[in-house]
Design goal:
mainly beta; Jelly Rolls; five-stranded antiparallel β-sheet; globular; QdtA_cupin_dom; Sugar 3,4-ketoisomerase QdtA cupin domain-containing protein; RmlC_Cupin_sf; RmlC-like_jellyroll
Length: 138
């Protein structure tokens, strides 16, 4: 996915169900709501003010990133174009394709970032140096 672009990444509106008496429910289903099977799930929380997360790209991994509580921004970079998304609705997720550099920052107090990933953890899939990422994209 060296040719991937930030324009291949998009906000996905997730299925949501509302009940006046019982609150809200959001549903995520493999290959139905999202375009991959979830193999790994993790969440970020208690991120100190002014700190950022991410700062890497993946060679093969796709992700859906959601703000299940609070909000934060996600800046995507394909080596040519950058796009910034604000995530602050628990019924929306940002779909990120492989080959995109990402930085998460501006976390609100109490923000919880849920990440659904297409693959299990594999250190070899990460590109953690931005200059290496730019070379990879060429």
């Amino acid at each position: 996915m060296k040719k991937s672009s930030v324009y291949d990444c998009t906000i996905i509106d997730l299925d949501r169900h509302h009940s006046n008496r019982k609150g809200n429910l959001t549903v995520v289903e493999n290959n139905k709501t999202i375009p991959f099977d979830v193999k790994r799930t993790y969440y970020l929380y208690d991120v100190p003010g002014g700190e950022s997360r991410g700062g890497h790209a993946h060679k093969e991994l796709s992700q859906l990133i959601m703000a299940v509580s609070g909000g934060f921004t996600v800046t995507l970079d394909d080596g040519i174009v950058k796009r910034t998304f604000t995530l602050n609705r628990p019924y929306q997720g940002l779909y990120i394709v492989p080959g995109i550099w990402r930085i998460l920052d501006d976390f609100s107090s109490g923000a919880v970032c849920l990440v659904l990933a297409s693959h299990g953890y594999d250190e070899a899939d990460y590109i953690r140096d931005y200059n290496t990422f730019i070379e990879y994209k060429k």
